Amino acid sequence: MEDIPPESEKYFEDVDTMIIDAAMYFNRKIRGHMNTEQALQLVKKYKPKRAILTQIGKTYPDHYKAQKRIENYCKLHGIHSKVELAYDGMTIEDLQETYLLFRYVGSKRLNADDILAEIPENTKTFFDPMTGSSIIAWRMKQKGAKVIVNDISPVAYYYSKAILGNYKLPKEEFEKFLKAKPVEGWLTKSKLKRPGSIELRKYIDGLVTYAHKQKNPIKDFLLAVCADMLTRFMGSFGVFRPYKWTVQSAVKFAKASYEDILKKIIPGDAIVTNKDIFDLEFPNVDAIYWDPPYDIKEGEEVPYTAQQYKNINSILMQRDCVIPEFDRQRIPELLERLAKKCKIILVSTSDSPYIDYKKFLSQHKKEVTVKKLKRKSRGTQPSSARPKVKEYVDLLWIAKDPVQLTENKRTAIYLVKPHAE
Fold first, then answer.
1. How many whole angstroms separate alpha carbon 205 and alpha carbon 188?
2. CB–CB of 290/349 below 8 Å?
């Protein structure tokens, strides 16, 4: 790429991260590519918060020398964006964080774009009765919708309440939290094999205990930090990963969680509850998204993820916290209740659900379609060996009533031509 066409310039206004071809070093040129100076001039023009120069060629000197010269050039020419040279294995955290939220099992972040594409743009109210990571609700709030979410899992509840809320914990309150005294709590006394450090176990228990002793809204925000911190230790498997974690690891993760949550908070209305879906009174809204858990056939073993919920929630709540097993036989009942409360309902399932979703949804909505969503994953079962990435197919059921176009009736008077003129 040698330049950005004028008709494309509108897409580069107010961008957070800009990735730019800078194949050649300063003063070097090659057809079809930009050099460092040309790329930096584009950064100066569009003023992104962050710019990453990529496709670095052999004309560049040592990485650190080149980075230093780029920094000097930016100072000299009034470029205030953060400019970085790309390197092999680099990950772009800001882009990942936009859609990752936190590392919660079953997150629909990989399918979020496809799901959101089916929700009408004029949706003003949105409901998710089992929100998990809240990725769909969070992005609906970005669009300006009022969101109502629920999850029985405390980890999901506290995290969702923080990112969908409007409260921002002051830095001084967070610093007090980091100085919490170690406690022999649930994790310390548990039979979990990891983490091996008793000092770390006590510190984590101390952080959670400190959070529970605070008054709201400080308490709920700190529990959200703890929830996110724990997912950084555990990933999606509910077991501490086999590393030599230390107290400093917890401090590092807690700080990252705190900063991430602050960045996720956006203005707007939201209601977050922590109830069993069968005890929940559903609101009347424009759109509902539902991702039923454990979409398995009768008699099959419940996936390992059930243990994930128990471990992480027990640490967070400092007591044995077992979530009631979801009664899959009652899915048709829930479909009926949900469908009656909205204009459009979207339901995510596996590619071979044991329930006939089309049949049940058709009983309550006139138009039912299904969309296949492909994603790549290493699965949800922990393994001593790194599992291979596989392609999975999920189904998205979309049920709605056709839009009724109201006829605009007008009174008309026929006039003969002279009078019409």
1. 7
2. no
Beta strands 344-350 and 390-400, pairing class: antiparallel
- Decide: helix, strand or coil at residue 56: coil
Q: Which residues contact 137 (CB under 8 A, 6 or more apart)?
A: 126, 128, 131, 147, 149, 160, 164, 270, 289
pTM of the model: 0.72
Average pLDDT over residues 96-120: 73
Q: How confident is the model at residue 242 (pLDDT cuts 50, 70, 90)?
A: confident
Residues 6+ apart with CB under 8 A from 350: 295, 394, 395
Residue positions counted in the chain: 421
Query: What is the spatial distance between Cα 257 and Cα 226, in angstroms, rounded to a whole number?
Result: 8
Q: Average pLDDT, whole number, for the chain?
A: 85
pLDDT for the residue 385: 47
- 3-class SS at 108? coil
- Cis bond leading into 283, ω under 30°? no
Burial class (CB within 10 angstroms; exposed 0-12, middle 13-18, buried 19+) of 414: exposed
Is pLDDT above 90 for 219?
yes
Enter the tokens of residue 311: 């471990």
How far CA 172 is from CA of 159, 175, 228, in Å, comes to 20, 5, 20
Q: Which residues partner with 393 through β-bridges? A: 374
d(CA 419, CA 283): 56
> Phi/psi at 83 (nearest 5 deg)?
-110, 130
pLDDT at 170 over 50: yes
Tell me if residue 391 falls in helix, strand or coil.
strand
Determine the average pLDDT of the residues in 118-140: 95
Closest CA to 146 of 116, 114, 117, 123: 123
